[in-house]
Structures are given as structure tokens and as C-alpha cells.
């Protein structure tokens, strides 16, 4: 099974000779997709989602500070 491995490897190299003058095939580039195509959302929808995310982060951060005792809301006293 492994007896002819070296012969097979050298045979494959001989099949594809490298020609330095041969033209190289052009690289295929993927078409660039805009954020609209990726998310299927309009600009207004993405803005509303960003605002909601900022509000959630603000509320969670404030809640964490209240729970840890770093800040004390004035309406508690």
C-alpha cells in the first residue's frame, strides 16, 4: 500500500509543470454586500435597534452600580 507512495508523489509533480510565462487566472472577488443586504433592515430600524441597545446597557449598568452599593438613589432615603 505505501510502497509506491514516493512514485505517486513524484508523478503528480510531473503532471503540472509550472510555466512562468503562462497568464495567471484572475482572482475572483466576492461582491461586497452592504449592511442593508446583510441585515435586511432599513436605516431607521437599525437606528432604533441601536438606541434600544444603548438604553439597555445604560439601565443594566445603573442597576449593577445600585446593587453593588457604589451609588445610592436619592428616592430610597
Task: Describe the fold and architecture.
This protein has 77 residues and is mainly α. The protein has a domain at 40-67. Helix content is 55%, strand content 0%. It is built from three helices and no strands. The N and C termini lie far apart (85 Å). The model has no long low-confidence stretch (mean pLDDT 81).
- Number of helices, where a helix is a run of at least 4 consecutive DSSP H or I residues: 3
Which range does the strand content fall in? under 5%
Helix content: 40-55%
Low-confidence stretches: none
Instruction: Quote the distance from N terminus to C terminus.
Output: 85 Å
Structural class of the helices, strands and pairings? mainly alpha
Gyration radius, to the nearest Å? 31 Å
Shape: elongated
Oligomerization: single chain
**What order do the SSEs take from the amino end to the carboxyl end, as H and E?**
HHH
What is the residue-averaged pLDDT? Answer: 81
Entry keywords:
0% strand, 77 residues, 3 helices, elongated, mainly alpha, 55% helix
Could you give the topology of this structure?
Layout: H1 5-15, H2 35-39, H3 43-68
Quick overview:
This protein has helices at 5-15, 35-39, 43-68.
